[in-house]
Amino acid sequence: MKGSNLGEFEELILLTVAALEQEAYAVSVKEELERRAQRTTNISAIHSSLYRLEDKGFLTSAFGGATQKRGGKSKRYFQVTNAGYAALQQSKDLRQDYWKTIPRLAFVKL
Amino acid sequence: MKPEEHKYRPPRMGERLLKFIYDESLIDDILGDLDEIYQDRAEVNGATHAKMLYLKDAVLSFRNYDLRRKRKVTRNNKLPMVSNYVKTTFRTLSKNRIYSTLNIMGLALGLAACLFIVQYVDYEYSYDKFHPNHENLYRVKYMVYRGGDLDIDCAAAVPRVGPFMKEKMPEVEAFVRAFPMESVFESNNIQYREQRVQIADPSFLTMFDYPLLYGNLEEALNEPNQVVITESTAKKYYGRTDVLGETLEMVSWPRGNFKVVGVTADVPNNSHLKYNVLISYETLNNQTRNDDGQASSETAWGWYDFNTYVALRPGTDPKVFDAKFKEVLWEERGEVFEKYDFRADFPLQPITDIHLYSNLLQESEPQEQGDGDTVFFLSVIAVFILVIAWINYVNLSTAKSLERAKEVGVRKSMGAYKKQLIYQFLVESFVLNLLALVIAVVLVILLTPMFSQLADAPLSREFFLRPSFWGIVGGILVLGSALSGLYPAFILSSFRPIHVLKGKLTTNKSGIMLRRSLVVFQFAASITLIAGTIIVYQQLDHMKNLDLGFDMTDTMVIQGPASTDSTFNSTMQAFRNTLTNKPIVEKVTTSSNVPGDEIFWTRGMRKLEDTQDKNFIVYLAGVDYDYFESYDINILAGRNYDRSLSTDTGNILINYAAMKSLDIVDPEAAIGVKVNVGGDTRTIIGIVDSYTQRSLKHDVNPLVFPLIEQNSNYITVKLSSDQYQQALEEVQATFDRYFPGSPFDTFFLDEFYNRQYANEQNFSRTFTLFALFAIIVACLGLFGLTSFSTLQRTKEIGVRKVLGAGVSQIVMILSKEFIILLAIANVISWPVIYLIMDGWLNNFTSRISIGIPVLLVAALLVMLIAIVAVGYKTVTTARTNPVKALRYE
User: Fold this and answer.
1) Is B305 within 8 Å of B156 (Cβ atoms)?
2) Which among A42, A48, A76 has the least Cβ separation from residue B57?
3) Which of B124, B239, B799, B825 could form a disulfide with B523 if both were Cys (CB 3.0 to 4.6 A apart)?
4) C-alpha to C-alpha distance for B681 and B696, rounded to whole angstroms
């Protein structure tokens, strides 16, 4: 399945959800992304990624926390699944692996 | 919490948009999310700004249109089921190869036959519809009533009526007259006889759609001695088509040099009015001008040789027009009508009706004249064949229902709805119909040239490019799938799963009844078609062998030379003498007409002492001394013309029909009676048998045979043997010697005469073909049906064999049912045959009667074919080892 690889934005979203622990829903994910990664995103892009990640099995969701601000509509809280963590880990390992092979001298210029 | 407690109300349009975009299962939390952001933004930036951003978010959400939706849509989609149905269909098809082939081939054959007929019928109906203005074009008929009886019913009218209509009737936009003739043209010292020559008004080219390739519409045919010719005629004479200004010499009447002022495309096949050469009308006017400068071809009210057409203003009702014109005509001609006690009428006839529904005197293309009834009849046969083919499908599918029952049971217990099963069997029927249709279309496209020859209609493959053809094909497909699929679908889908899976299914009574009645219908249709074919053949045979009153065996006819100059008579005499002296020639005679020819020369005739109102129309055929002897025509009383009596030019022979019209009963009493024929006084010296001058489809007209010693129209050569090739060579050599340069056109009289039955012959051939189609289809169905019923009774047969039944007994048991069905089919079809065919036979003046033998032969034939179809399967089943049969299942 194509979805076993994570895209850059997808990885970011997944990390954000993981970082937000119990409080991850679309709006909070959007805010967290803006705060931490200085990325302004459209809410539709967040929705798209969240639902697709759920379809891929990297996220699960549950309803809860309706507020007046939301017009009485409940939030959909997302949580990273084991598969999601594994995918993140895999992605991280892959990068790590590459980092190890890059000669240190290459960074001297920086 | 209620939405009303909102501080800021998000834009409704945005919400609506989102509801449209997102799936129902997602919309709640997404709306919540956007609402939350909206509230925050509204606090910071104000409601308007927030609303704008909300809308922007909503619009951008379009990218998520397929979010979650696809999977959900897929869950309810019928496509995978349809593909499963198609898969099942092909599995069932390949599981029973013979059955499937029979089913599809039967259907394909039926459809092919049907498409052929559609093509043919379409062609027949297309006549004269290529004129853009065809709805408003009419031909003016000429009808004459004498003493209340219809005396003349003619396609060609008088020359005056066209211009008269145009002058008096504002509805008439244009008129055209066309005077048909046959003439001989010369080019490069070679003479050609042209059959299709029309002397026509200039409006011929503007009123009809015969486009000029070269020439000017304003100038063509305006002056005397102009001709317009068709493309292929131009090629024949000059080898090229751009021949404006060339001269064409006409060596027969009205002789002279003609200037080519136009070249048109060739006349389409589906035109009732055909020409190769058009001659300007002024040419004729010059020929017929009297001393006072009046041309009778403009003023005559009694010379009916002019096909007259009018273009009416759009929206004119021809019926109203006819009634109005009757009054106008009375004002002009009433006095004459009163004086001579006759009435002439000029009703209009739509030009598009001429080919199929008109059978008048002097039709333009009598050999080609179609028959609306036949065409309609063929359409009925097409529907019949189609229905037979569909019935086959229904029969075979329901017969197979037992086999499919388990599948239905399993599907049902797996949760299939009845609706889905109906759908499945409809899809199956659609697939089968589609397969059959593809085969049928391929067959039809491949076989069109053959069929075109058989039906003697120039059908072309262009028909298949037309959208209307594909419309018909699509219609047949949809209708066929629905009609042939619905019944099996309902039967199969109504099986109860428990019964089926327990194997308790008994074929229900009504299903068997239906299948039986369908088989009966198929066989009744087949018997009807076979009997019909036999009867058509018998009638044709009857007509060919009937004593026509004259002899046409070994008779060769030469069309006379064109030039009739001063030396003609002596040349002709010498030619005759030379011919007669040849051993291969028995007799030579010249005449203005030959049997089988339509006579156009008419006069009024009455007893000399009678008043003019007793005049009746007679047809004149000029003959010489040897005519009656050469044709072996019986002289009932009196004598033939005699060479030794110079006074015979004042005498006349008439036929029996003419004698009757003179109110004379006894032929002997007619001899010596003085008559007035077209103003001349003649004495009757002989009464000739009413031989069949035209075909048996026409009544025998009163004929008068004036003596004209040197006719130039036809030279009949009666041969003494049937060495036609040798005779042809010898006669041609002699002809060329005496008439050098004249075209030698000849035909054998029997062929010429029987050409009048060409329509009937085509009809019978087509009819036979389709009868064959129907029978093949019916037999395929029967074969399939028997295969299944014997398969079902395999065990029974095994038991019977073990108990000592012989093969013949078993065959009897198995075929008994079909023989009973056939018997019923016969009972139904016989009266139908009688009704239909009796009507058809009434078209002929001499007809056969429908005998029981024909019906019996048809019945036996069908029974024989059925037994062969049933027999193969039953005998193989009956001969199988009972051990195999009992092990079955």
Assistant:
1) yes
2) A42
3) B825
4) 32
Q: Which helix (H) or strand (E) holds B824?
A: helix B807-841
Helix, strand, or coil here: B551?
coil
Give the pair of three-digit tokens for residue B775: 């029978």
Residues of B whose CB is below 8 A from A44:
57, 60-61, 63-64
Cβ-defined contact of A67 to B30 (cutoff 8 Å) = no
Q: Are B375 and B125 in contact (CB under 8 A)?
A: yes
Burial of B367 (0-12, 13-18, 19+ CB in 10 A): exposed
Interface residue B64 vs chain A (CB under 8 A): yes
Cβ contact A51–B37 (<8 Å): no
Look at residues B103, B83, B114 and name the one whose alpha carbon lies nearest to residue B432. B103
Write the pLDDT tens digit of every residue in B427-453.
888 998 999 999 999 999 898 888 888
- How many other C-beta atoms can be found within 10 angstroms of the C-beta atom of residue B9? 15
Which residues between 27 and 66 in chain A have a beta carbon less than 8 angstroms from any beta carbon of chain B? 27, 30, 42-45, 47-48, 51-52, 55, 63, 66
- Dihedral pair phi/psi, residue B138, rounded to 5°: -135, 150
Closest CA of chain A from B58, distance in Å: 8
Tokens describing residue B161 = 């009526």
Q: pLDDT tens digit string along B59-106?
A: 888 888 777 665 545 555 667 788 888 888 888 888 878 778 878 888
Residues of chain B with pLDDT under 70: 1-7, 68-78, 402, 502-511, 563-565, 788, 885, 887-889
| ipTM of this complex prediction, to 2 decimal places | 0.86
pTM (2 d.p.): 0.71
Residue by residue, DSSP assigns B148-181 as TEEEEEESSB-TTHHHHHHHH-TTEEEEEEEEEE
For residue B343, list its beta bridge partners.
B145
pLDDT (tens digit, 9 = 90+) per residue, B552-564? 888 999 988 876 6
Neighbours of B105 (CB within 10 A): 18
Would you state the structure tokens that stand for residue B614, as one six-digit string? 């007793």
Q: Running DSSP on this structure, what letter comes out for residue B466?
A: S
pLDDT in tens, B834-880: 988 888 888 777 888 888 888 888 888 888 887 887 777 778 777 77
CB B684 within 8 A of CB B654: yes
Tens-digit pLDDT profile for residues B104-134: 888 898 899 888 888 888 888 999 999 999 9
B556 closest CA partner among B751, B749, B753: B749
Q: Do B1 and A72 touch (CB under 8 A)?
A: yes
**Chain A CB within 8 Å of residue B31 CB:** yes
3-state secondary structure (DSSP) of residue A64: strand
Write the single-letter amino acid at B206: T
Q: What is the largest CA-CA distance in chain B?
A: 136
Helix (H) or strand (E) holding B651: strand B651-655
- By C-alpha distance, the chain B residue nearest A27 is B33
Helices (H) and strands (E) in chain B, counts: 30, 24
- Using the Cβ of B63 and the Cβ atoms of chain A, whether some distance falls under 8 Å is answered with yes
Phi-psi region of B148 (alpha: psi -120 to 50; beta: other; left: phi over 0): left
| Length of chain A counted residue by residue | 110
Phi/psi-derived region of residue B341, left when phi > 0, alpha when psi is between -120 and 50, beta in every other case: left
- Pick the residue of B6, B33, B60 with the most A CBs within 10 A to test the interface with A by mutation: B33
**B36/A43 touch (CB, cutoff 8 Å), yes or no:** no
The tokens describing B87, both together, are 């898969």
Minimum distance, in Å, between the CA of residue A50 and any CA atom of chain B:
11
Measured in degrees and rounded to the nearest 5, phi and psi for residue B363 equal -65, 150
Strand, helix or coil at B232?
Answer: helix
Two tokens at B158? 């008088």
DSSP state at residue B609: T
What H or E segment, with its residue span, contains residue B249?
A: strand B247-250
